[in-house]
């Protein structure tokens, strides 16, 4: 193994160790989408049927439609939680020990991002397993084909979280940003309703949702869960990932970022 | 003050470094050298610029003027090589309280590209050095303040650095724990040959023969020995005479 893979392995192992030490975090990550699936989706099942739209080949129940969006919700919350821990680490000073590693900052940030996504993907599979007992049963191959989609979507959402964390200096400020980022991203997307249905009620909401990167992350997951590839969603998710991650690396650069010349910036 | 003569063979050579936070000049033309296998104390009151200087050496901030060289490597041009030769103990805790000491040290070894297998005997070695072998599998949060500082030093030593930076490493410790940590660092210099830059504002931590750099309001006011700074009086008197302010 090279030093790079050892460093990545160390960062990933720490993320998993922290995750296993915080069982309530795992429960919270699961309970949130399950509440939506068991209560919200069950309630709306009778009023919100979804007609035949790709990737579905038949009419689907609302529970089935909303499941990929809830997978996205897990990734979205995990991404923001990971960046929350970055803000916490910055406040306590623990992040300094990561940033004084001899490896370049882009690598350290990328390794932390990837490790956090791998943990989040485990949570998504746990959710999909429970959803299976709730009669949300995509084809078996879908459980395999969804993996790269989850990783790509998770990386994009995690990179967005890192980018947000780079501009925040105190945990108290982060809570406000969560409200301005997570909820708008989730609700103004195709996670809960198809875009065509939104257009019927509000063109503005449709346009906002169509411009929301989370919509494409959800659609990528939705198609992949049924063994299909949505090139537009994959392309836009990848582009957003590159943009968010490049901006994050810039922001964490001691010579260029937002906090250059500001005491306590890192 | 005599003009600074760059010494790239030194463990640390800082030449004419300045740094601003907005309009405030935090460091003004700072120069100092820490020779190999030597102890150097960076003495200054809170706000003197000690932590800022450490942040520049460790590349947490980017220096815009001057040059910092660690074991002969320019911190700006060759940051990876410079950082690989640095062990840092920050004022704030860097270890994860939820994880065991072993898990923490294995993680920090990985951050320097050292595999868990290679790190295992080294972890035992550094924990023996800091007298924490019995606490290897204890959660860091269960260790006392003094033990945690020693554990931080063990972390900083894992990758066999040539230069150890300690920023107020005894902050928050009682007199006995402070003396233990300092004795440990002095022993490490003798046993491991690691050079040390020790930032402090506590005079009692220094011995007459110690090399001292007095940093005040971002400027180096003296680069001398503790006995020379003290003169006929105490170190505190010498410091007050030089800076005009008590610690």
Structural summary, described in words:
The complex is a heterodimer of chains A (266) and B (247). With 266 residues, chain A is mainly alpha-helical. Chain A is built from 11 helices and no strands. Chain A is globular, with a radius of gyration of 19 Å. The model of chain A has no long low-confidence stretch (mean pLDDT 86). Chain B has 2 domains: 153 residues, Rossmann fold; 68 residues, no CATH class. Chain B has 8 helices and 10 strands. In chain B, helix 3 packs across helix 4, helix 4 packs across helix 5 and helix 5 packs parallel to helix 6. The model of chain B has no long low-confidence stretch (mean pLDDT 89). Classes of the chains: A mainly alpha (266), B alpha/beta (247).
Layout of secondary structure:
The complex is a heterodimer of chains A (266) and B (247).
Chain A: H1 3-21, H2 23-44, H3 62-92, H4 94-99, H5 105-133, H6 140-166, H7 171-187, H8 195-201, H9 203-210, H10 213-225, H11 231-252
Helix pairs in contact in A: 1-5, 2-3, 2-5, 3-5, 3-6, 3-7, 3-10, 5-6, 5-11, 6-10, 6-11, 8-9, 10-11
Chain B: E1 12-21, E2 24-34, E3 39-43, H1 50-57, E4 65-70, E5 73-74, H2 79-84, E6 86-89, H3 101-110, H4 116-129, H5 145-157, E7 163-167, H6 175-192, E8 195-200, E9 211-216, E10 219-225, H7 226-230, H8 235-243
Parallel strand pairs in B: 3-8, 3-9, 6-7, 7-8
Antiparallel strand pairs in B: 1-2, 1-4, 4-5, 9-10
Compact overview of the structure:
Helix content of chain A is 76%, strand content 0%.
């Amino acid at each position: 193994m090279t030093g790079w893979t050892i460093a990545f392995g160390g960062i990933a192992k720490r993320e998993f160790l922290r995750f296993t030490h915080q069982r309530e975090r795992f429960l919270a990550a699961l309970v949130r989408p399950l509440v939506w699936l068991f209560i919200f989706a069950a309630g709306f099942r009778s009023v919100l049927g979804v007609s035949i739209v790709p990737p579905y080949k038949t009419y689907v129940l609302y529970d089935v439609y909303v499941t990929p969006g809830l997978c996205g919700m897990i990734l979205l919350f995990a991404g923001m939680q990971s960046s929350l821990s970055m803000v916490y680490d910055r406040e306590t000073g623990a992040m300094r020990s990561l940033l004084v590693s001899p490896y370049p900052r882009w690598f350290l940030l990328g390794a932390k991002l990837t490790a956090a996504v791998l943990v989040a993907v485990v949570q998504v599979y746990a959710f999909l397993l429970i959803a299976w007992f709730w009669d949300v049963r995509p084809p078996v191959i879908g459980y395999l084909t969804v993996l790269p989609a989850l990783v790509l979507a998770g990386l994009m959402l995690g990179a967005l979280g890192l980018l947000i964390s780079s501009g925040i200096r105190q945990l108290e400020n982060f809570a406000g940003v969560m409200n301005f980022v997570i909820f708008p991203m989730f609700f103004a997307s195709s996670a809960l309703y198809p875009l065509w249905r939104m257009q019927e009620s509000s063109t503005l909401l449709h346009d906002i949702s169509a411009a929301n990167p989370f919509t494409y992350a959800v659609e990528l997951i939705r198609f992949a869960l049924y063994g299909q590839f949505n090139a537009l969603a994959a392309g836009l998710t990848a582009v957003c990932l590159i943009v968010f991650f490049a901006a994050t690396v810039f922001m964490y650069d001691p010579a260029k970022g937002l906090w250059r010349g500001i005491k306590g910036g890192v | 003050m005599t003009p600074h003569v760059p010494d790239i063979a030194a463990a640390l050579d800082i030449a004419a470094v300045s740094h601003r936070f907005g309009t405030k000049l935090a460091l003004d033309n700072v120069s100092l050298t820490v020779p190999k296998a030597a102890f150097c104390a960076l003495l200054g009151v809170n706000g003197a610029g000690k932590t800022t200087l450490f942040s520049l050496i460790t590349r947490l901030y980017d220096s815009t003027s001057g040059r910092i060289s660690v074991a002969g490597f320019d911190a700006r041009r060759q940051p990876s090589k410079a950082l690989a030769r640095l062990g840092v103990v920050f004022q704030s805790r860097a270890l994860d309280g939820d994880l065991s000491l072993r898990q923490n040290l294995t993680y920090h070894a990985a951050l320097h590209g050292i595999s868990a297998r290679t790190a295992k005997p080294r972890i035992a070695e550094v924990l023996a050095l800091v007298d924490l072998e019995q606490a290897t599998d204890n959660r860091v949060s269960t260790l006392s303040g003094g033990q945690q500082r020693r554990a931080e030093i063990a972390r900083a030593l894992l990758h066999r650095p040539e230069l150890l930076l300690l920023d107020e490493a005894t902050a928050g410790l009682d007199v006995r724990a402070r003396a233990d940590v300092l004795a440990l660092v002095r022993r490490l210099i003798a046993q491991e040959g690691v050079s040390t830059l020790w930032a402090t504002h506590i005079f009692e931590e220094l011995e007459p023969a110690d090399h001292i750099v007095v940093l005040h309001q971002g400027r180096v006011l003296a680069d001398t020995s503790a006995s020379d700074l003290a003169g006929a009086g105490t170190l505190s008197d010498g410091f007050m005479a030089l800076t005009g302010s008590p610690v």
